[in-house]
């Protein structure tokens, strides 16, 4: 043991007792701290993952990959009225997974392309419901106003709804492509990732894999039970006088 003490003094180039004690204290602290860190990490890794604030389930999903899409969101006030192409229409069910009340305060969606890249898609607000049109044969002169099934919009309900424990919130969400995807013209979508936040700053996230693609209109794909169509009294409308312009340029 004394040989070890002698070697340490030689390495420190001093016979000072205080220097020796300080050296041993630092080494002991480093070793003890490292062991404590490893034990704590192992403990935390053994814990089950935290319960998400919400459970998410989609009940209908339409993707129109090629810009400009034939599904159009009307916005603005006369005379400045525009039509924004909708790339993604999403009917979602969000269930409060907490034991107490909570409120949805924010959500956003990301899509993954066939190249493996992720892009944030841009929400088209329905807090105050907007008219949505579809173009027959992609002809701007043959539009009709859409009806959605079920006829509920997520934003307009979530803005004032406080959810009890286990209570669901259902409705349609709409998104437009960011500039990068608009410039790509035709986009192959593989996955959609939806993130929901609540008033307690908790989040829930779900990724939906678009593996089941139907041969819908011009490359549109649809999963689940929701849908949209033409109302019984909806007549064709010539929309050629309304400029097509994304909400966010």
What structural keywords apply?
249 residues; alpha+beta; 5-stranded antiparallel β-sheet; elongated
Write a short abstract of this structure:
The protein has helices spanning 2-12, 17-46, 154-158, 179-184; strands at residues 54-63, 71-77, 80-85, 88-96, 104-113, 118-123, 132-135, 143-149, 168-176, 189-198, 203-209, 221-224, 227-230.
Fold and architecture overview:
- The chain has two domains: 2-46, no CATH class; 54-230, no CATH class.
- Helix content is 21%, strand content 37%.
- It is built from four helices and 13 strands.
- The protein has helices at residues 2-12, 17-46, 154-158, 179-184; strands at residues 54-63, 71-77, 80-85, 88-96, 104-113, 118-123, 132-135, 143-149, 168-176, 189-198, 203-209, 221-224, 227-230.
- It has an eight-stranded antiparallel beta sheet. A five-stranded antiparallel beta sheet has the order 3-2-7-8-13, with no helix packed on it.
- The longest helix has 30 residues, at 17-46.
């Amino acid at each position: 043991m004394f040989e070890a003490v002698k070697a340490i003094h030689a390495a420190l180039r001093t016979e000072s007792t205080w220097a020796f004690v300080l050296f041993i204290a630092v080494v002991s602290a480093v070793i003890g701290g490292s062991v404590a860190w490893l034990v704590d990490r192992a403990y935390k890794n053994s814990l089950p993952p935290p319960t998400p604030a919400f459970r998410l389930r989609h009940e209908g999903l339409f993707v129109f990959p090629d810009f400009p899409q034939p599904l159009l969101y009307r916005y603005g006030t006369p005379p400045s009225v525009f039509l924004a192409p909708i790339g993604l229409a999403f009917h979602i069910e969000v269930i409060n997974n907490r034991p107490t009340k909570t409120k949805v305060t924010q959500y956003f969606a990301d899509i993954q392309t066939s190249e493996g890249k992720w892009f944030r898609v841009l929400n088209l607000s329905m807090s105050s419901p907007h008219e949505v049109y579809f173009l027959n044969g992609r002809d701007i002169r043959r539009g009709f106003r859409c009806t959605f099934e079920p006829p509920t919009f997520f934003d307009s309900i979530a803005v004032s709804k406080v959810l009890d424990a286990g209570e669901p919130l259902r409705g349609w969400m709409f998104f437009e492509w960011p500039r990068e995807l608009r410039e790509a013209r035709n986009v192959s979508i593989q996955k959609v990732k939806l993130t929901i936040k609540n008033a307690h700053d908790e989040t829930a996230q779900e990724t939906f894999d678009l593996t089941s693609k139907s041969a819908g209109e011009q490359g549109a794909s649809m999963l689940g039970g929701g849908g949209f169509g033409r109302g019984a009294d909806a007549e064709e409308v010539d929309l050629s006088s309304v400029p097509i312009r994304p909400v966010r340029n």
